[in-house]
């Protein structure tokens, strides 16, 4: 972190507390990723630390179930890394990708339409000629 940003965060008690909390969560997330199987780590993340209980968000119920099965082991591994963790809570937070916006249809210009029609005239009857004719008629 750049020196000026650190100085700014240290200038205020609330910002210092927020900065410490962010560093703590970053460290917990790094530890979580190192002790959790890759497939589970990709589909979950640390949400918060609440009174020595790590709250983990899982992308789906299957990941949540597996993390619940591993919770005792995860607590031990967190403790072995020096984290003061006595419990784990798993929450399912389904990831919804942004809606797919269909691409805007391309519009052929007059020159392109004329070129297609000219090529269409030179070709013998074929599926290609039929496709070019349909394409040339589009707006």
In short:
It is built from seven helices and three strands. It has 139 residues and is an alpha+beta fold.
Report on the architecture of this protein:
With 139 residues, the protein is an alpha+beta fold. Helices cover 57% and strands 14% of the residues. It starts with a helix and ends with a helix. The mean pLDDT is 87.
Write the layout of secondary structure elements.
Layout lengths: L2 H8 L2 H23 L2 H5 L1 E7 L2 E6 L2 H9 L1 H10 L6 E6 L17 H13 L4 H11 L2
Parallel strand pairs: 2-3
Antiparallel strand pairs: 1-2
Write out the strand line-up for the largest beta sheet, numbering strands in chain order. 1-2-3
Distance between the termini: 54 Å
Structural class: alpha+beta
Q: Tell me the Rg in angstroms.
A: 29 Å
Q: Proportion of β residues?
A: 5-15%
Largest sheet: 3 strands, mixed
Helix content: 55-70%
**What is the helix/strand order?**
HHHEEHHEHH
Number of strands: 3
Annotation keywords:
7 helices; elongated; 3 strands; 139 residues; three-stranded mixed β-sheet
